[in-house]
Amino acid sequence: MDKNVAIEVKNLSKTFYIPDRKRTTLVEYLKAPVNAFRGQRFEVLKDISFKVNHGETLAIMGNNGSGKSTLLKILAEIYVPDEGKIHINGSLVPFLELGVGFNPELTGYENIYLNGIILGMTKKFIEKKFDEIVDFAEIREFLDLPLKNYSTGMQVRLAFSIAFMSHADIYLLDEVFAVGDLHFQEKCRVVFKELKEKGKTIIFVSHSPELIKSFCDKAILLDEGKIVKYGNASEVADLYVKS
């Protein structure tokens, strides 16, 4: 693999199977291995291939159900592809399952350390970044409250704030600018721009042609699991609008 390439995907395919009926009894569960693949078949991704060089920003576009989030989850090793190969050169942080490991019974203060350690941070690093995390999330006055008393928006802001402090070579972002209010979204844009200026590799899902034209080098347009176009970000964004 070329050392300048951060991620290379070759002939990637993924299929899901939806059972015709639910299994509700023990007998039905015991029979599950035999009947596991009886049901509706959905080819979510079909023969996907692309490369992302270090320092590039790649957008993934497409209508709902086109396979965008599934592709990110495969890159993050949450899903396993049925076919194809993926080569990743560098450390990777996914902004997909935010807040994984949060404990609603613990305080915001305690959850910062818990979630940070799950993301691979050391206690010393968290202590150093603690004030930045709290101020970015705008939750200082609520630090001593259990997380279960936080609103959904507060929990998401906290999860993003912790994840943004992670040091990585590659960042995977799923609709990062659709989270929180406009003020918080603008703060995310600033951090996003800083990551790009530092030469980080960024792959993100977005429905915003303007955002993609402003920030991205390349883009992929997916339709029904297939790549319709892969190349210059502005050209792909324009095609997305037309289609």
Task: Reconstruct the topology from this structure.
Layout: E1 5-19, H1 26-30, H2 32-35, E2 39-53, E3 57-61, H3 68-75, E4 83-88, E5 92-95, H4 108-118, H5 123-137, H6 152-164, E6 170-174, H7 182-197, E7 201-205, H8 209-215, E8 218-223, E9 226-232, H9 233-242
Parallel strand pairs: 3-7, 3-8, 5-6, 6-7
Antiparallel strand pairs: 1-2, 1-4, 8-9
Helix pairs in contact: 4-5, 4-6, 5-6, 8-9
What does this entry look like structurally?
It is built from 9 helices and 9 strands. With 243 residues, it is α/β, with parallel strands linked by helices. The chain has a 6-stranded mixed sheet, sandwiched between helices. Strand 8 and strand 9 form a beta hairpin.
* Poorly predicted segments: none
Characterize the overall form. Answer: globular
> Count the helices. How many?
9
In the sheet with the most strands, the strands line up as 5-6-7-3-8-9
Main β-sheet description: 6 strands, mixed
Number of strands: 9
Average pLDDT figure: 87
- Terminal CA distance reads 35 Å
What are its keywords?
6-stranded mixed sheet; 243 residues; alpha/beta; 3-stranded antiparallel sheet
